[in-house]
Design goal:
heterodimer, A: 473 residues, mainly alpha, two-stranded antiparallel sheet, 4% strand, B: 152 residues, Immunoglobulin-like, 2 domains, 5-stranded mixed beta sheet, 3 helices, binds iron/sulfur cluster, binds copper (II) ion
């Protein structure tokens, strides 16, 4: 049997280890890394909070906090970090650092033994993405404020860091990151597509190493703060790339690899099964993308008035329509297509839920592509604001880098449509290529997989066309 | 007279275009007209929010502000005008590039200012059609490939 190749080109088992380079390996094993990145981001974060607070209720397009968070950070996240480097944001994220410091009772180095705080286990029924699903959806209800009013951004970010700290006092390790953080869920979901991964290198070495220091911790580092089993996990979703396992593995058996994009989407094992909460994350993210694009980059003033709550009635209509669409309508339509898939396949024994959940993972590449298209629409027209705000972060008339008077300059916005269209096509291709493989996993026979794939193919094509129309039609 | 002549030209062109059914040729057949639009700007949208013209049209946009100072910058064309309350702005240009272009407010006018946009659509929107065809071709093509494989 030949190897399974993506588009007939890229071997799905292809990996390129980056940690085989000494420099990277040494870096990953150092306790200074990623701590220095976190400290740097913490500093920026303080400036963001301060400027957002000072900015108050004014228009935010010349506010440091607003611009750095909603233009630079968000775009970097969606355009580069998540699609290429998985959860590297979590590697350098400052939100949970106060909780970490408290639990570890020190700023640097390794505390042996029990961590401080109550260290409670997260309740079992909440060990899923539902809090993050609902939490993030609710956050988007206020996007008409967060992204334009500095004070709203201040409240949001301040709230997140406070919550991260408080939950760090109560629950063990990074429970906040795993189950609560609003930006965690979609990073986890879309990092399944990412072109890189952290994994153990040789399973044989892990098997012989019976004292699993990567899980338990040792004098070099902590046991996986994300409660993963570094020696066996196969999906990026819940690996926060904190790099502790590189430090705690005495055999240098953890590696950071480049890989073909999207391979995690095909993972469906007992330990890491496809799940309905992750499926819903995919729907919610797609729904939000549709709503955001229409509201913020579409020409419809009515929608804008609703989102910024000029009237209470309009605002309530918006949030209920938005929630209804992401939670009921979109999944409902997908359920219909899943049902059609089963009919087409002629196999009545496969449970509908399995078809629905499994195929929903085809929305991961496409959804990410849509978000990338959306991000181009943010950064190209508005990127130039960043030059202004880094020179005058507090609007005190500073001109640190001499760019404070740089005028608003849209960059390459004439190419926006081409970029968005091309992005959609590339990610559509990934969705199709991975989707048919999912179909083969769902249905036992190849002919069933072929016929059962047709309705999903139609659905994905329709979604792609709808976004294409929104972007350039 | 002018109008009749234009109509005639259009008709002949359409017939030829139908015979040849060449997409490029069809574009020549859009009579090049002068088009005028008055766009009202008000926090945070334009009315009309969609301007539809054809390639080669000579387009004049008058920007009228109904509250504070607003601007209008057209992506791809790089043109800009501003309107203060009681003092209109205006742009005249030949729509040489086809496709959908966003026009954006270029003067900070309030909190939703970065989201104050409208669309200029210069037909025929080849870019869109080509992408649609590509997506359909990929969809159908991939389906064919998948079914072919089983016969091997
Ligand atoms: S899950 Fe959230 S808080 Fe935790 S590291 Fe990632 S972004 Fe930061
Ligand atoms: S497996 Fe755990 S310890 Fe290793 S990088 Fe990922 S989150 Fe950190
Ligand atoms: Cu304006």
């Amino acid at each position: 049997m030949g190897k399974d190749k993506l588009f007939g080109l890229i071997d799905l088992d292809w990996r390129f280890e980056l940690t085989k380079f000494k420099l990277i390996r040494v870096l990953f094993k150092s306790r200074w890394f990623p701590l220095l990145l976190i400290l740097f981001n913490l500093f920026i974060f303080v400036v963001i909070l301060l400027s957002a607070f000072l900015g108050g209720y004014s228009a935010g397009n010349y506010n440091f906090g607003i611009m750095l968070v909603w233009i630079l950070w968000w775009v970097l996240l969606m355009l580069v970090l998540v699609p290429v480097f998985s959860r590297t944001w979590c590697m350098m994220c400052p939100f949970p650092i106060f909780g970490d410091w408290f639990q570890r009772r020190r700023l640097f180095g390794v505390t042996q033994g029990k961590l401080a705080g109550l260290n409670l286990k997260w309740p079992k029924f909440l060990k899923n993405m539902w809090i993050m699903n609902i939490g993030f959806l609710i956050t988007t209800f206020f996007s008409g404020f967060f992204t334009v009013r500095p004070l709203a951004t201040f409240i949001l970010l301040g709230g997140i860091i406070l919550l991260a700290f408080v939950l760090g006092l109560i629950f063990e390790k990074r429970s906040f990151c795993l189950y609560v953080c609003p930006v965690s869920g979609f990073q986890g979901l879309y990092s399944q597509f990412a072109a890189s991964e952290i994994r153990r290198k040789d399973p044989e070495i892990c098997r012989k190493h019976t004292l699993k220091t990567c899980y338990l911790g040792n004098e070099k580092g902590y046991g996986c703060p994300w409660l993963l089993l570094p020696f066996s996990f196969e999906k990026n979703t819940y690996c926060g790339m904190c790099l502790e396992c590189f430090k705690t593995c005495p055999h240098d058996n953890m590696g950071f690899f480049l890989r073909p994009p999207g391979v995690d989407i095909l993972q469906d094992t007992k330990r890491e099964p496809r799940r309905i909460d992750e499926a819903y994350k995919a729907f919610i993210m797609l729904g939000i993308a549709l709503m955001f694009y229409s509201v913020f980059q579409g020409p419809w003033g009515v929608l804008k008035d609703m989102v910024r709550a000029t009237t209470m009635k309009g605002y309530l209509t918006y949030i209920s329509a938005h929630a209804l669409f992401s939670l009921v309508i979109l999944p409902g339509i997908f359920l219909l297509f899943s049902w059609l898939s089963r009919i087409f396949s002629g196999n009545k024994d496969v449970p509908l839920k399995k078809i629905f959940v499994s195929f929903s993972y085809t929305l991961i590449p496409l959804g990410l592509g849509v978000w990338i298209g959306f991000s181009f629409g943010i950064i190209l027209p508005n990127g130039s604001y960043i030059l202004h705000i880094i020179s005058d972060p507090f609007a005190w008339g500073w001109n640190v880098l001499g760019t404070a008077n740089f005028p608003w300059t849209p960059v390459f916005t004439g190419l926006l449509g081409y970029l968005q269209g091309a992005t959609l096509i590339v990610f559509y291709l990934f969705s199709l290529a991975l989707g048919f493989r999912i179909s083969k996993q769902i249905y036992p026979e190849k002919s069933q997989a072929q016929r059962g794939w047709i309705p999903i193919l139609v659905f994905l094509t329709l979604i792609t066309l709808i976004f294409l129309w929104l972007f350039i039609g | 007279m002018n109008v009749i002549f234009l109509r005639l030209k259009l008709q002949i062109c359409l017939i030829v275009a139908m015979v040849l059914s060449g997409g490029l040729f069809a574009s020549y057949c859009y009579a090049q007209e002068e088009k005028f639009f008055e766009i009202k700007a008000k926090k945070f949208s334009y009315t009309p929010h969609k301007i539809i013209v054809n390639k080669g049209d000579k387009v004049t946009l008058r920007l009228v502000s109904e509250d504070v100072t607003h601007g209008l910058y057209i992506d791809g064309y790089g043109l800009e005008t501003k309107a203060h309350p009681g003092q209109d702005g205006s742009i005249t240009f030949v729509a040489g590039k086809t496709g959908k272009f966003t026009f954006r407010c270029s003067v900070t006018c309030g909190e939703f200012h970065p989201y104050m946009v409208g669309n200029l659509i210069v037909g025929p929107n080849y870019r869109f059609y080509v992408y649609v065809l590509m997506i359909l071709a990929i969809g159908v093509g991939s389906g064919v490939v998948i079914f072919r494989k089983s016969k091997e």
